[in-house]
């Protein structure tokens, strides 16, 4: 005889079969996915740390353009060794404000922007190791050439007086000029070394002398120094009255005395002129340079220029015949608008003094 199942057990079995759901395709897919995750690892497992890409670092060298080959928005770190910060390098030319020409000295820019204080740094020079400056290449500030009525824009870096440094202006029509700004600066010191330096070393700290309050106030109003490009595409100083003014009250500080050993070259927007002293007549000669400035190297020819290079306009001038203005010079009955001025040594100086 077959054993019979009790009624209660039979009811429990039928109830279990009725309540057990059939596996759906979605549940199967979830199970397979969880199995793959268990094989490959937990989904919440931390990813391996990525390798940090550091910004390139270059070494600072004085009087060298460090940033001319970098592209726009490049970020560069520069290591400035202590030997270039201490009072042994004074030529710190800075062009611009906030945004600077790539030829500007980086240490001077850091001081001008207020990132560092050279006087404070040099007081603790013995513990100084160097400076790490982070530089970003940016687009040069531009403005339209309104003076010439042209739509072309030129790079315009303005001058300003900040933190005991007066920066220079810079105007250039070549847009290939790079510009940069300093976004971070850190002074690196050795904490195990004492921090003392004699006060007499502070007389010339990185090109910044110890100026009195009156001297600093006077320096704020120094005439603006602007660098422009002449007709030969060479950097020269923009013309102003200081270019031709006497430098003092002594005879040797007169511009007429300066003409004994130098020749003055000035340019309008299209032409170059030469002002020199005629050694035989002791009169001034005003001549237009006829040879193209691009073909005439003033460093390789005699000055004043020979007759083949110039067309004489006046050869019997006295200094009083020339009236110099802020942007022009009037010689007898004609006015010339001057863009730039340049003094160059004569080939042979005139030995006698003018009366």
Question: Can you tag this structure with a few keywords?
Answer:
355 residues, alpha+beta, ten-stranded mixed β-sheet, six-stranded mixed β-sheet, 6 helices, elongated
Q: How would you explain this protein's 3D organization?
A:
It is a single chain. By secondary structure, the chain is an alpha+beta fold. It has helices at residues 7-19, 25-40, 106-113, 118-123, 213-219, 255-258, and strands spanning 57-59, 75-81, 96-97, 99-101, 128-138, 142-144, 153-157, 161-162, 165-166, 169-172, 179-189, 204-205, 208-209, 226-229, 235-238, 262-267, 272-277, 284-289, 310-317, 322-324, 328-331, 334-337, 340-345. Strand 20 and strand 21 form a beta hairpin.
Short note summarizing the structure:
The protein is α+β, with helices and mostly antiparallel strands and 355 residues long. Helix content is 15%, strand content 30%. The protein is elongated.
Give the strand tally.
23
Number of helices: 6
Strand-residue proportion: 25-35%
CA-CA gap between termini = 155 Å
Q: What is the mean pLDDT?
A: 75
The level of helicity is 10-25%
Q: What structural category arises from helix and sheet content?
A: alpha+beta
Order of secondary-structure elements: HHEEEEHHEEEEEEEEEHEEHEEEEEEEE
């Amino acid at each position: 005889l077959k054993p019979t199942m009790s009624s209660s057990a039979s009811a429990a079995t039928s109830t279990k079969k009725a309540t057990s759901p059939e596996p759906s395709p979605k549940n199967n897919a979830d199970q397979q996915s969880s199995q793959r995750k268990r094989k490959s690892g937990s989904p919440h497992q931390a990813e391996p740390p990525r390798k940090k890409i550091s910004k390139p670092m270059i070494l600072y060298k004085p009087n060298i353009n460090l940033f001319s080959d970098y592209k726009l928005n490049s970020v560069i770190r520069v290591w400035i060794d202590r030997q270039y910060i201490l009072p042994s390098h004074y030529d710190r030319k800075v062009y611009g404000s906030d945004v600077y020409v790539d030829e500007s000295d980086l240490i001077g820019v850091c001081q001008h922007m207020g990132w560092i204080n050279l006087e404070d740094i040099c007081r603790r020079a013995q513990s100084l190791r160097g400076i790490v400056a982070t530089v970003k290449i940016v687009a040069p500030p531009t403005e339209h050439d309104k003076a010439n009525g042209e739509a072309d824009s030129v790079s315009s870096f303005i001058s300003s007086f900040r933190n005991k440094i007066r920066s220079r202006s810079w105007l250039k029509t070549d847009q290939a000029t790079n510009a940069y700004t300093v976004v971070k600066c850190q002074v690196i010191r050795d904490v195990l070394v004492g921090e003392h330096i004699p006060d007499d070393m502070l007389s010339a700290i990185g090109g910044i002398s110890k100026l009195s309050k009156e001297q600093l106030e006077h320096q704020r109003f120094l005439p603006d120094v602007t660098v422009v490009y002449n007709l030969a595409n060479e950097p020269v100083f923009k013309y102003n009255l200081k270019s031709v003014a006497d430098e003092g009250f002594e005879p040797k500080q007169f511009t007429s005395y300066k003409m004994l050993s130098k020749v003055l070259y000035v340019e309008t927007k299209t032409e170059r002129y030469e002002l020199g002293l005629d050694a035989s007549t002791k009169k001034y000669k005003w001549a237009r340079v006829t040879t193209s400035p691009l073909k005439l190297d003033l460093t390789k020819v005699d000055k004043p220029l020979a007759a083949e290079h110039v067309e004489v306009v006046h050869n019997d001038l006295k200094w009083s015949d020339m009236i110099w203005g802020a942007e022009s010079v009037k010689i007898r009955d004609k006015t010339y608008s001057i863009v730039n001025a340049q003094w160059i040594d004569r080939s042979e100086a005139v030995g006698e003094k003018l009366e």
